[in-house]
Amino acid sequence: MFRYLLRRLNLFLATSLVMIGVLFYATGLFPVERTFALTGIHSPTASQLIQIEQDYKLDSNGFMQFIAYLQQRLSGNLGVSVTSHQSVTEELGTVLPASFELAVMAAVIAIGLGVPLGVLASQSQHKLTQNTIMAITLTGYSVPVFWLGLYLSLWFGVDLGWLPISGQLNLLYEIKPVTGFMLVDILLSDSEYRISAFKDALLHIVLPATTLAVLPFTVVVRSTRSAMMNVMNQTFIRAAEARGMHTNTIILRHALPNALIPVLKHLGLMLGSFASYAIVVEMIFSWPGVGSWLVSGIYQRDYTVIQGGILAVALLIIFLSILIEVLHTVFNPLSRKDLYASN
Amino acid sequence: MPLLDVRNLTIELDTPHGRVRALEKVSLTLNAGEIHGLVGESGSGRSLLARAILGIPGPNWTITADRMMWDGNNLMAMTSKERRNLMGSDMAMIFQDPSGSLDPSQTVGSQLMQAMPKNPKAYFWQKHKHAKLTAQKWLHKVGIKNPQKVMSSYAWELSEGECQKVMIAMAIANQPRLLIADEPTNSMELSTQAQIFRLLSQLNQLQNVSILIISHELETLAQWCDHLSVLYCGQVMESGPTEELINQPYHPYTKALLDNMPDYSGIEAHKAIMPTLPGSAPALQHLPIGCRLGPRCPEAQKKCVNQPSLSHLRDRYFACHFPYHGETTNDDPTA
């Protein structure tokens, strides 16, 4: 097991290194002054210029420059934003939690609704129920997110007026950021409007989270269903029945744990597309997260923000996919069997 | 009163080729405390019969029977919930694929502890320990030497024999009165097979568990069973006490099975053709009418296109129009 974890860590480091290498190469291709692209300082003073050349070793060869670049980036120096003149690291610190909040909500919706519905679809004997669920998930799978997001905000936000369509919180409320997670911060604050602010924040998150949840939800339903159908035909389910266990107990204790393992794998494979979905959703609902921050950075030719955003998002995706693979191994004793065999 | 009494059980399967009678008018009587063997080729519907008796039918089955009595209670009239309750406590079953019968994602111990009978007197904080101790006790009883290690392993870390012992422990922990063993020793080496059979017969003697063993090995069954039923293509050919049945088969199929058994005495010439019945067992879509052995039967006549009903001579039952009776066997040159 230790050897396995070491190899996964190795994989993470190697992939990240390649990714940073590509980023370093791309930085050189920006159609601006190299010092500007690296630091975001538009017209540096003489002393700043010397400092930059020292930091990034601009007078040595490419390899040494990459080492210096790596050193700067890994120590948290992502330069300053061209437009806001603030440190990119600090800006990342404020936008990342907002994205996390949205992603967690979407994941809760997708898994919380998707798994029961998938189980239901696999257990139902009626062709009609099965086909209905399959038709709905196929529609959800194929509908483009930008269209869906716009129409949801048009229907529920504009026409019906039930839900707010942009932002994270109404401007009326002033909440001091502590953790960066809005819902947590509201509960932590001692404002007298805490409860109504919390309600408002919840209302704000409904539309973006639902839109973002549609794709993972359909993936979860479909893969849960197929995995459950597969598992329910196996001998150990027959054996559990023969022991007189109740069908619900069998599903919860034996079928579902085995069925969720391939679901986890599916989700891990789709992580990249979920991330690009999240960027589009954040743009549509002006959610102050990494996605909209990155896209506005791209619009404004904010080279340091582009680098910082890509670095953060790519590192996260690499980390999460490896984490999911490790979790898959932890929860699936059968994959450990292969592991023993290979070592 | 017999423990289990099944009369004219018919199972029809809905297949893409239409409805098929996989089991036709099968009768089976099982007395308390006996070991009953069910012999048949693969595909003869032995497992279907076992699952129908236990009450875990597949989704495309239609089961009809004149009578299905369990200890004086009508199984046909019970709701599925009552059947399920019966399964855990009075009837139990072990399967032919023991390692596949255990959940691969849970340790053997946790599954075993779930199957252990609950102690109503224990407080909830004692329940875990109690279940663990009972599980170890039962593992010890079925002949597993290191219960602790087996309980913390996963099913794929154990051998087939060990898995089958675990399955037996689970099945008998609730002290059932009938244990259905569906090819319990399939894919095991001979010494393990012997261990499992010895264990089953011990259970029968010590706990008075009735056992229904399903197998295709007539020799092995003849060694361990009190009664035998011979199944061919979903029809009962013959059933009766093992000794009498082996010594003097009434039915041509049983006789063919016994005659064609290789005796390993080495008298046969090298590469000699082994004697078998001509032809092979028909596919379920192309079943012959009447007695299904008809086309292959050495004694078949015109009358055999009607299915013979199960007739009996003392405690022997057979379904044949032309049985090898006591009187006729003397004239039979092949006997």
Automatic annotation (TrEMBL), chain A:
<feature type="domain" description="ABC transmembrane type-1">
    <location>
        <begin position="96"/>
        <end position="328"/>
    </location>
</feature>
<feature type="transmembrane region" description="Helical">
    <location>
        <begin position="305"/>
        <end position="327"/>
    </location>
</feature>
<keyword id="KW-1133">Transmembrane helix</keyword>
<protein>
    <submittedName>
        <fullName>Binding-protein-dependent transport systems inner membrane component</fullName>
    </submittedName>
</protein>
<feature type="transmembrane region" description="Helical">
    <location>
        <begin position="102"/>
        <end position="121"/>
    </location>
</feature>
<keyword id="KW-0812">Transmembrane</keyword>
<keyword id="KW-1003">Cell membrane</keyword>
<dbReference type="InterPro" id="IPR000515">
    <property type="entry name" value="MetI-like"/>
</dbReference>
<feature type="transmembrane region" description="Helical">
    <location>
        <begin position="201"/>
        <end position="221"/>
    </location>
</feature>
<feature type="transmembrane region" description="Helical">
    <location>
        <begin position="133"/>
        <end position="156"/>
    </location>
</feature>
<feature type="transmembrane region" description="Helical">
    <location>
        <begin position="12"/>
        <end position="30"/>
    </location>
</feature>
<dbReference type="InterPro" id="IPR035906">
    <property type="entry name" value="MetI-like_sf"/>
</dbReference>
<comment type="similarity">
    <text>Belongs to the binding-protein-dependent transport system permease family. OppBC subfamily.</text>
</comment>
<feature type="transmembrane region" description="Helical">
    <location>
        <begin position="267"/>
        <end position="285"/>
    </location>
</feature>
<keyword id="KW-0472">Membrane</keyword>
<keyword id="KW-0813">Transport</keyword>
<dbReference type="Pfam" id="PF00528">
    <property type="entry name" value="BPD_transp_1"/>
</dbReference>
UniProtKB/TrEMBL annotation, chain B:
<keyword id="KW-0813">Transport</keyword>
<keyword id="KW-1003">Cell membrane</keyword>
<dbReference type="GO" id="GO:0015833">
    <property type="term" value="P:peptide transport"/>
</dbReference>
<keyword id="KW-0997">Cell inner membrane</keyword>
<dbReference type="GO" id="GO:0016887">
    <property type="term" value="F:ATP hydrolysis activity"/>
</dbReference>
<keyword id="KW-0472">Membrane</keyword>
<dbReference type="GO" id="GO:0005524">
    <property type="term" value="F:ATP binding"/>
</dbReference>
<comment type="similarity">
    <text>Belongs to the ABC transporter superfamily.</text>
</comment>
<dbReference type="InterPro" id="IPR003439">
    <property type="entry name" value="ABC_transporter-like_ATP-bd"/>
</dbReference>
<dbReference type="Pfam" id="PF08352">
    <property type="entry name" value="oligo_HPY"/>
</dbReference>
<dbReference type="Pfam" id="PF00005">
    <property type="entry name" value="ABC_tran"/>
</dbReference>
<dbReference type="GO" id="GO:0005886">
    <property type="term" value="C:plasma membrane"/>
</dbReference>
<keyword id="KW-0067">ATP-binding</keyword>
<dbReference type="InterPro" id="IPR027417">
    <property type="entry name" value="P-loop_NTPase"/>
</dbReference>
<dbReference type="InterPro" id="IPR050388">
    <property type="entry name" value="ABC_Ni/Peptide_Import"/>
</dbReference>
<feature type="domain" description="ABC transporter">
    <location>
        <begin position="4"/>
        <end position="258"/>
    </location>
</feature>
<dbReference type="InterPro" id="IPR013563">
    <property type="entry name" value="Oligopep_ABC_C"/>
</dbReference>
<protein>
    <submittedName>
        <fullName>ATP-binding cassette domain-containing protein</fullName>
    </submittedName>
</protein>
<keyword id="KW-0547">Nucleotide-binding</keyword>
